[in-house]
Amino acid sequence: DKHNFRIVFSPLHGTSAYLGEKLLRETGYQYLTVKEQMIPDPNFSTVVLPNPEDPKAFTLAIRDAKEVKADLCVATDPDADRVGIAVLHNNEYHLLNGNQTGALLIYYLAHEKKINAPAVIFNTIVSSDLGAQIARSKGLEVKSTLTGFKYIGEQAKLLESTNKKFFFGYEESFGYVIGDFVRDKDSLQALLLCCEMANFYKLQGLTLLDVLEKIYQEYGYYQETLLNVNLAGQAGALRIGRIMEHFRKLNALEGVNIIKKEDYSNGIKGLPAADVLKFYLDDGSWFVLRPSGTEPKLKVYVAVVAGSAEKASERVTEIKNNIQNMIEKVG
User: Fold this and answer.
1) 116: number of CA atoms within 13 Å, CB side?
2) Domains identified in the chain, total number
3) Domain ranges, residue 290
4) pLDDT score, position 253
5) Which of 46, 27, 26 is nearest to 36 (CA)?
6) pLDDT for the residue 257
7) How far apart are CA 256 and CA 251, in angstroms?
């Protein structure tokens, strides 16, 4: 029953405009499109950044959603591989991050999709542990790759010579794939599954935020943050190198107890060599340092788990600040 479930869809001026609307129409959803953003526009004139990771990209979608009290806003990026959602909850729209959406999709699929053979979920080494915890509790295997969906696609192909089946793949940067006939993140698959999931729970009187709270109560309150350290030019590149070398030698950090360090520079866990460092802390938290492969910046991922949302927020801020202070001291 989809009659009381409304969607607002935006392709953010991109390539999913035709197919996204076609899929929603042919699967029987009640939907509106953001008219201004259905038009191909190389300047992306209606947004600051045409990326569903940016909350501002949802401004027009939420404007239209408020007019009809839509249950869900869905936006895809211009090349139709990433998707983001904003959920109506207590008369306000809430944008979910990539880890939250991934955890919800895993929870939904693990409960509602038949698992007839050994099955594998793929994420990356910077994905939240929440999705993996849900998956393992349902008997699914979890494999983590380096950042980048090409690695998930490679691993999916390797399953063809085994008795294991591909179940789901995702990364924290709003990329998901459900059917492995596509070997990359696919916003059109994810668009339909997000709508199906949100409608399924609405019929039970739940919003996706209600379901997320239920997940947190069962598995712990997970929270993540990303610190981008922008360092342009040759001087910036050299400083990034010095920061990585400094942390490569690091065994202690103020306010945290490091129990394990992983250096991927020589390749570990069967993964290709990469300039990535991951630190595990004694309370289940972790942080990763990774120079961006496409921009002049150092990316620092921080993930925590705690007994409440408040404690998780405090902890993730504390770790982030301690790392930032140390980075600033490295000349």
Assistant:
1) 1
2) 2
3) 221-329
4) 81
5) 46
6) 87
7) 10
- In a domain, residue 91? The reply is yes
**Residue 205 CB contacts under 8 Å (≥ 6 apart), including other chains:** none
The CATH number assigned to the domain holding 50 equals 3.40.120.10
> What does DSSP say about strands 286-291 and 119-124: parallel, antiparallel, or unpaired?
unpaired
Identify whether 303 is part of a domain. yes
> How many Å apart are CA 113 and CA 139, to the nearest integer?
13
Domain termination site, one of 33, 66, 96: 96
Is 163 inside a domain boundary?
Answer: no
Q: What is the pLDDT of residue 116?
A: 83
Q: Which pTM was predicted?
A: 0.95
pLDDT, tens only, 118-160: 999 999 999 999 999 999 999 999 999 999 999 999 999 999 9
Cα–Cα distance measured from residue 2 to residue 28, given in angstroms and rounded to the nearest whole number: 7
Q: What is the CATH number of the domain that holds 298?
A: 3.30.310.50
- End position of a domain, from candidates 79, 96, 113: 96
- List the Cα angle 89/211/81 in 5-degree steps: 85
Decide: 275 and 244 in contact? Cβ < 8 Å.
Answer: yes
pLDDT tens readout for residues 228-254: 999 999 999 999 999 999 999 988 887
Low-confidence ranges of the chain (pLDDT < 50): none
Distance CA 237, CA 21 (A): 43
**Beta carbons of 44 and 12 less than 8 angstroms apart:** yes
Q: What angle do the packed helices 208-219 and 187-202 form, to 10 degrees?
A: 90
Domain presence at residue 301 = yes
125/133 Cα distance (integer angstroms):
14
DSSP class per residue in 245-298: HHHHT---BTTB-EEEEEEGGG--TTPPP-S-EEEEETTS-EEEEEE-SSSSEE
